Amino acid sequence: MSEPNFRYDARLANEIEPRWQERWAEERTFRAPNPTGALAEAGHPRAGAPKKFVMDMFPYPSGAGLHVGHPLGYIATDVYSRYLRMAGFNVLHPMGFDAFGLPTEQYAIATGRQPAEITAENIDRYRDQLRRLGMGYDTRREFATTDPDYFKWTQWIFLQIFNSYYDTEADRARPIAELIASFESGERPAPDGRAWADLSEVERRRIVDGHRLAYVTEAPVNWCPGLGTVLSNEEVTAEGRSERGNFPVYTRTLKQWMLRITAYADRLLRDLEDLDWTDSLKSMQRNWIGKSTGAYADFATYAGDIRVFTTRPDTLFGATYMVLAPEHGLVDALTAETWPADVPEVWTGGHDTPAAAVAAYRAAAAAKTDVERQADAKTKTGVFTGGYATNPVNGERIPVFIADYVLAGYGTGAIMAVPAHDERDFAFAKAFDIPIRQVVAGDEEWDGEAAYTDNVKGRCVNSEFLDGLAVPEAKERIAAWLVEHRRGEAATTFRLRDWLFSRQRYWGEPFPIVYDETGLPVALPEDRLPVALPHMEDFSPKTFDPDDADTAPEPPLGRAKDWVEVELDLGDGPKTYRREVNTMPNWAGSSWYELRYTDPTSEDRIADPANESYWMGPRDSDDIGGVDLYIGGVEHAVLHLLYARFWQKVLFDLGHVSSREPFRRLFNQGYIQAWAYTDARGVYVPADEVTEVDGAFYYEGERVEREYGKIGKSLKNVVTPDGVCAEYGADTFRVYEMSMGPLADSKPWETRAIVGSQRFLQRLWRNIVDEETGEVTVSGAAPSEATLKELHKTIAGVREDYEQLRMNTAVAKLITLNNHVTGLEEVPRAVAEALVLMAAPVAPHIAEELWERLGHSGGIAYADFPVAEDRYLVEATATYPVQINGKVRGRVEVGADAGEEAVREAALADERVAANLAGKDVKKVIVIPGRMVSIVAK
């Protein structure tokens, strides 16, 4: 028996969907009009309407294309955007591509192709897949970070950062020209007290460069000889190896570009309070920024003062040794020629001289990453330098060690060790037989078997003038003492480090920087932008023996001699300059892309101020501004978001943007997981080639183990949306992903469950269209009272669910209403049309088709979303939660018009409530009409 010609199935879906996608493209349905410029459209259906800016964390287009986990957030923003258009908003919903970076470069090297060619192919595939899913993007605003018209402005923003400094008194960035003017006028003295005019040009430039928000410095970095490049922390595994290739990673001090994000640490922390982000996300950023209050203390040595920062200056009398990072600048000067008399053998590391011990320990420490060095290893390692420091508060001479758990890039690279009150210091002191002195005591006597860390509420002991003081008072007293004796000062520090901004790669944004004969950086004029990459046949980085930590990077661009050496006239005649041969990290392009979406055709600025302020500006004087909704994975909760916030604040300070934050509201979607399978070696095997036999699983005849994991290439459990769309249709795929569970939760992919979503759409179709004839079957009859109540309850619930991103419960409500309609003898047109309108955001293709068949022209995208009528929302009964002493212990249902006495009697008669009141004396029963019952009992 053949299927009816007009049954909604994969065949019909795959006929309807491409047709509507083509029509949307031809009619430019999803364009969002700007206030001014090329994208302004006075005749647009939403011109002059309130705006909403909704965007996703854009994808990095790989050759593998999208898997079913990728579109989860994309579909959610599309559903939300479609709803908002129908609710009367002018909605900007764009998409772009983050396309520079290491994965494409490595694939290009492996295949002998150009990264630009590969990137274009990958973007085409992603674009086709997203279109196939029915995404309603304003395609006029699409770009890739690799487009010259885009990275021109990435380079321009870098120049704004380079040409700025942070004015701590004004608490904002200012143009570097204003700093230079303050030096020239004498308002700001030169560091060594000389007149500005008496300094050489190079001296003046070095001083100015030291204040810039973008600067070159020697910095500890993650060096991977096996890849031939420096890696960011996020590209290094917890085992101290490269995420790509699994090569060893070493800590090296190299000349790198840095961005002074630390200048903004307080503001990045403070402005979190005004963002509509989850508490957990804010906590992650707070922890990363890591604000600490305490004091600096200076310990004198014959090589100079060692400055430490401590949050517990009240424990200074308990400092019995010091530890420096192996890379600390005073280590060489402090290292003695010979061991002092009677030095314990454990302090020497088994070496004959301090110099030998320090050199050997430094080499071992360089083979570890910062992550490994900070791990709380059971065995504490370190060596004595042979040098001593003087404790500033008691004049005690204490030994100075180096140990890898202290990092040069954090704090001052030195700590005072108070072993009695710090677990790590205690373990180190025990291992090296160093004295342990208690300086804070609580109510109970300390047994000395472990560090006494419960000491915040204690009082000082063995601390001379601090004895008897509570910890807060002691902190204030010692901070004042340090200032008075010029041995320190009260201070606030941050865990946040300046942003390492150099990569020894080819496929990245070139720096708009050249170097002159002095070796100092010179900014290119804006009219020289963009600086494009040279064409190179061989752009692979020079790699080295993975175990050779003493090598140094040689960036691929260094081989492009004709590009590196360039003759320019930058205002003082033609001269030969040398270009920067590092490239920017791929974080650069994603740190400002939301701004370009607001005005992507602007040729003379990142965005016209009228367009930028319309889409991202503050709503009022108390508003922080930014994108109205930003959805993406929690894996970007810290780095990308901190970087984007930093760039936004610099541009805000310089007057280029109106909003001090880029993303007003942020939502992290969960992951979609799927079954993955491992063989006896623990190696993942292709999930789609595994067969099940009697409850066991086999791959190529070998039994494998099954586990749930995040969908991805590494677990070999990828499921592509292409196949699902071919078998069921894009609308079924969209409905299934949105109905799997709360958007924020991770959830399992189950292909067999998709059929449930298809059945919902089939019933929706059958309620309106005859499967045999294709005729619309709805009637003009008025809906019954029961149907109207069901309809308006659904309208109210679905509106609220869409607004709160509860797509799964919105779909559930639509299914409930649709099932109700299925049971009617005839389907009233008014109900059918409302049902189609409500389904349109989540299943747009079938909704467009049904809307047109119902006789409407102009499409459904801008049709008004239904509004519930209050008179149909009144329930015949009311449910009252019943609290006992503040905790809900039951619920009672009474008539909607029940009086207080009737509600009170029903509450006390409820079985659960009565059980909780057994043996208690009811003191008071308070009825709040229509809301709750509160019982006070003892």
Show unreliable segments. none
Looking at CATH, which topology of one domain would you report? Isoleucyl-tRNA Synthetase, domain 2
Assembly annotation: single chain
> Structural class of the secondary elements?
alpha+beta
Write the CATH architecture name of one domain. Answer: Alpha-Beta Complex
> Mean pLDDT, nearest integer?
93
Give your account of this protein's structure.
The protein is α+β, with helices and mostly antiparallel strands and 938 residues long. Helix 2 links the parallel strand 1 and strand 2. The longest helix has 19 residues, at 785-803. It is globular and about 100 Å long. The mean pLDDT is 93.
Topology overview:
Elements: H1 10-27, E1 51-56, H2 71-86, E2 90-92, H3 102-111, H4 115-132, H5 148-162, E3 164-167, E4 172-175, H6 176-185, H7 201-209, E5 214-224, E6 229-231, E7 250-259, H8 265-270, H9 279-289, E8 291-299, E9 306-310, E10 321-324, H10 331-334, H11 345-348, H12 354-366, H13 370-374, E11 383-390, E12 397-402, E13 414-417, H14 423-432, E14 440-441, E15 459-460, H15 471-484, E16 488-494, E17 499-500, E18 513-515, E19 521-523, H16 561-564, E20 565-569, E21 574-579, H17 593-597, H18 609-616, E22 629-632, H19 639-653, E23 666-668, E24 672-678, E25 684-685, E26 691-693, E27 696-699, E28 702-710, H20 721-728, H21 730-739, E29 747-748, H22 754-766, H23 785-803, H24 807-822, H25 829-839, H26 844-853, E30 877-884, E31 887-895, H27 900-909, H28 911-917, E32 922-928, E33 932-937
Parallel strand pairs: 1-2, 1-22, 10-12, 22-23, 24-29, 30-33
Antiparallel strand pairs: 3-4, 5-6, 5-7, 7-17, 8-9, 8-16, 10-13, 11-12, 14-15, 18-19, 18-21, 20-21, 24-25, 24-28, 26-27, 27-28, 30-31, 32-33
Helix pairs in contact: 1-20, 1-26, 20-21, 21-22, 22-24, 23-24, 23-25, 24-25, 25-26
